[in-house]
Amino acid sequence: MELLHVLLAASYILLVSFSQSSSMCQGKTLPYMTPDVTQISGRSFDYIIVGGGTAGCPLAATLSERYSVLLVERGSSPYENPYVLDKRFYGFPLFQTNEFSSVSQSFISKEGVSNLRGRVLGGSSAINGGFYSRASDAFVRRAGWDEELVKESYKWVESKMVFKPELTKSQSAVKFGLLEAGILPYNGFSLEHVEGTKMGGTVFDHDGRRHTSADLLETGNPDNIVVLLNATVKNIIFHKKGTENEKTVHGIRFIKSDGNGSQTYEAYLKQLENSGSWGDVILSAGALGSPQILLLSGIGPKRHLKNFGIPLVLDFPEIGQEMVDNPSISVLVESDPEAQLPDPPQIVGIADDFKFIVQGLILPISINATIIPIAIKFAFPASKGKLELNSTDPRQNPLVEFNYLAKEKDMKECIKMVQLVERVARSKSIAGFLGKEHHSNSKSPHELREFCKKNVSTFYHYHGGCAAGSVVDNDYRVHGVKRLRVVDGSTFLESPGTNPMATLLMLGRYQGIKILAD
Predict the structure, then answer these.
(1) pLDDT tens readout for residues 103-141
(2) Which residue ranges does the record assign to the Glucose-methanol-choline oxidoreductase N-terminal domain (predicted)?
(3) Region of poorest pLDDT, from 160-169, 349-358, 440-449
(4) pLDDT band at 2 (very low <50, low <70, confident <90, very high)
(5) Is 446 a catalytic residue?
(6) Choice among 304, 461, 463, 479 that is catalytic
(7) Nearest to 60 by CA among 481, 51, 500
């Protein structure tokens, strides 16, 4: 119980200090934020961004340099929440979930795999392990991005919210465990996606305070951004122009996120000053949120929309397709819950021609107990699934199926994953940190397959649903619809680098600059 008392005392102190500091920040540099939907209802903006997450915040900050921006976030502000901002509480939001207001929203795939999505200003950058690492050069080339602008956008993010971590004892043990397992060479501190073992960047500063994508709003023009909190977008407003198969976006409809009412409010796009053109509604609601909003707006497979009584705007079978989640296997090297301070990952192993990503961490499972998993993911799964509506209430999760290990290729790679992660878990370095050895019985090929089937889980890097090429073009405009873009992980065909956070932060800045240039 000693850890519980320490954390509760720290929680009270931090809650007071964070509330005071966030109040001062909001008066000076952060844009105006309000949960009052009536203040926004009926107003018009140059750009409307749906989702104040990892990509949405840097996008809003960048566009505000020249245009008025409404940023709509279904969750609350992170700045009064020490469980988000303080490293000592890393992982607490992952087990503190509820239906409408928790900063993490849980969901379960159709295969029965538990998962999470961010529901707070800052999105998943406010609840994840804070590990920062860029995409590979090959990923950037496959995406067709301007390589110089990509580098500039990464550096812009890194100058504001990325730090070199101070290696902890547990992460030092993970580092040497990875090297013992043959994940070589050791590349030291690097933000690049390089094979071997390395220390990555972190969004936790040297005082242990988390910096989320919401902090990037401070770089924008505060007079040009309004952040609407605790509001969930219900659907997109269209008016028809030109040919029947081309629709034009006019604005959004939204409701309160608290689940206590269904009254609908509206906000609209306006014509840009000194220009004959208009801005856009930009969906940055994530791999579940963005395709869900398109479906609720009548853009999607005709038969599926008819089942929910949603008027068809555009028959678009590709919406909700290409859903991918990287299959993961975790081995608990300390399965008896202990009272240790949580410790997010600082070290990563990148192995077998970039196919496998390995990390270790100390993860809380309750307010006074932690476990120590060594986790591995397969970076390039062939198995794909789909997303469909479960309800016409946008506050409810859609149905999602990832088809983990459905392809034989993925099952073969999972068997290799189990063997590699077991080598790391059995290393002398991990045993020395724990003060005891991890024993693992060798498994037959059949037992390895069954182990994969029973233990496959998520690395929380799911993506797809609005895939680049089939749903959006090179400028991230939705095919067949005017004034509508999608800028988030739903457009990814694969998960970039060790994890997508760095690249999503970069993408928000990158696309903002591209739009300003247009």
Answers:
(1) 999 999 999 999 999 999 999 999 999 999 999 999 999
(2) 286-300
(3) 440-449
(4) very low
(5) no
(6) 461
(7) 51
Whether residue 508 contacts residue 215, with contact meaning beta carbons closer than 8 Å, is answered with: no
Residue 269's identity, in one-letter code, is: L
Confidence band of 29 (pLDDT split at 50, 70, 90): confident
Degrees, nearest 5: CA angle 414-108-349: 35
Q: Are strands 247-256 and 481-482 parallel, antiparallel or unpaired?
A: parallel
Rounded Cα distance between 135 and 302, Å, is: 36
Query: Tokens 């931090």 — which residue?
Result: 14
The pTM score is 0.94
Give the pLDDT of residue 13: 47
- What's the distance, CA 5 to chain centroid? 32
Q: How far is CA 16 from CA 30, 127, 227, 417, 464, in A?
A: 19, 20, 23, 45, 40
* CA–CA dist 392, 310 (Å, integer): 8
- C-alpha–C-alpha distance, residues 47 and 64, integer Å: 9
- Compute the mean pLDDT over every residue in the chain, rounded to the nearest whole number: 93
Tokens for 289, please give them: 């949120």
Residue 362: closest CA among 491, 164, 78, 169? 169
Residue 248 and residue 239 in contact, taking contact as beta carbons nearer than 8 Å: yes
Whether 389 shows a pLDDT value over 70: the answer reads yes
Phi then psi for residue 462, to 5 deg, are -65, 150
Query: Checking DSSP bridges between strand 69-72 and strand 201-202, what pairing results, if any?
Result: unpaired
Which H or E element spans position 26? Answer: helix 2-28
Provide the terminal-to-terminal Cα distance of the chain, rounded to the nearest Å.
58
Distance from the Cα of residue 444 to its chain's centroid: 36
Alpha-helical (H) ranges within 247-392 are 286-296, 302-307
Query: Are 299 and 484 spatial neighbours (Cβ–Cβ below 8 Å)?
Result: no
Residue 245's CB is within 10 A of a number of other CB atoms, namely 9
Q: What is the CA radius of gyration of the chain?
A: 22
Taking the C-alpha atoms of residue 70 and residue 244, their distance in angstroms, rounded to an integer, is 29
H or E element that contains 169: helix 169-180
DSSP 343: B
Tens of pLDDT, residue by residue over 259-308, are 887 899 999 999 877 666 889 999 999 999 999 999 999 999 999 999 99
Q: Sign of the C-alpha dihedral, residues 84, 89, 95, 98? A: negative
HEC string of 235-272 equals EEEEEECCCCCCEEEEEEEEEECCCCCCCCEEEEECEC
Peptide bond into 185 cis (omega under 30): yes
Q: Rounded mean pLDDT of 35-50?
A: 98
What single letter denotes the amino acid at residue 434? Answer: L
